[in-house]
Amino acid sequence: MKIGIVCYPTYGGSGVVATELGLGLAKQGHKIHFITYGRPARLKHFQENIFYHEVNAEDYPLFEYPPYDTALASKLVDVIKYENLDLLHVHYAIPHAAVAYMAKKILLAEGKYVPVVTTLHGTDITLVGKNKSFAPVVAFSINKSDGVTAVSDSLKKQTNENFDIKNEIKVIHNFIDFDRFRKINKDHFKKAIAPNGEKILVHTSNFRKVKRVQDVIHVFKQVFKEIPSKLLLVGDGPERRNLEELCREIGLCDEIRFLGKQDAVEELLAVSDLFIMPSANESFGLAALEAMACEVPVISSNAGGLPEVNIHGETGFLSDVGDVDSMAKHAIQLLSNDEMLKKFSKNALNNAEKFDIKYILPQYEQYYEHILATAVY
Ligand code: GMT
Question: Ligand 1 pocket check: which of 205, 283, 298, 300 to mutate, most ligand atoms within 8 Å of Cβ?
Fold first, then answer.
């Protein structure tokens, strides 16, 4: 198939999933065309069957905001027409599903039909999408997509609760590539971070409010009182300044390291003992899955799709959002019992294996075939 993929080319999970999916499909022989405003972060090297088309929203003194949606729609029309694409797969509903619909209509007027698959990722439904300034367009464009997928059962449920959706939403869970995410030996690195054999806790995110990174620090504060430990905070975002202040207030600056954005997250996971994800909302929790693939158990909230990934009492523990005491209690329980920690690490890997790309990629291929066979003009 010749498939167009539209996504946010940033460090966010939806862009990561879209890029990894495209790379996986290209390895299967499909021709994949990424159409975005920047080169997706995980699209680093030349690869056969991968093409990249950059969208440039021209500026003009009249515009306060360059009209990205219009530029994207025009680029989609161009690429679909001249590359003769079979299908367009857009990730994150806003604005991609609406823009795809516009491109589809323009092409239809010229006699070319291209079905659109929209994948819902999370905040495009649970946070931003629900906002009244976007909601009517989100609902309309989901209903006008030829196929709709969601990355968890929870997200499918929330979509149907929040919007009047006529389409059947197909759940295809996020996935992990074990060629990259697996336990590797980085003992020298561990010694540098924790020279006295301290336990290492880790959190990775884009440091937005929804991630509740302050809870990670409060959990760590309680853990540190009981267990010699260090905390690695990986990523960056709007909350970072407040978090640095919080570290200073509680006097734990020497124990907490802000590492900023990192490409080789798997190397940090390789030296970590416990992953913390206290999010207020999380449709899936790709970062938790990456940790589990590297044999790191997870202490998380029970928000959204997290219980579909992190199994309470097996691969880690789940607590209510904001219940820092419960998260800290579970963390201390695990970190103070080496046998239990080892068992949870193995369970984490076993559960992550269910989300191996080798099982999930064929689900997308079958879904594309189904949409190509059933979509109506
Ligand atoms: O809302 C975000 O955090 C951004 C979004 C993204 O596009 O990066 O993340 C969502 O999609 C990921 C990939 O499907 C999921 O693993 C995340 O759980 C989800 N984030 C939220 O629901 C908060």
Answer: 283
Closest C-alpha to 300, from 212, 182, 191: 212
pTM, entire model: 0.95
Q: So what's the architecture of 187-355 in CATH? A: 3-Layer(aba) Sandwich (3.40)
Q: Is the CB of 256 under 6 A from ligand 1?
A: no
Which three-class secondary structure state does DSSP give residue 272?
coil
CATH annotation of 2-175+356-374: 3.40.50.2000
Is cis: bond before 238, omega within 30 of 0? no
Is any atom of ligand 1 closer than 6 Å to the C-beta of 286?
yes
The residue ranges of every structural domain in the chain are 2-175+356-374, 187-355
Which residue's C-alpha comes closest to atom 21 of ligand 1?
A: 282
Q: What is the pLDDT of residues 210-258, one digit of tens each?
A: 999 999 999 999 999 999 999 999 999 999 999 999 999 999 999 999 9
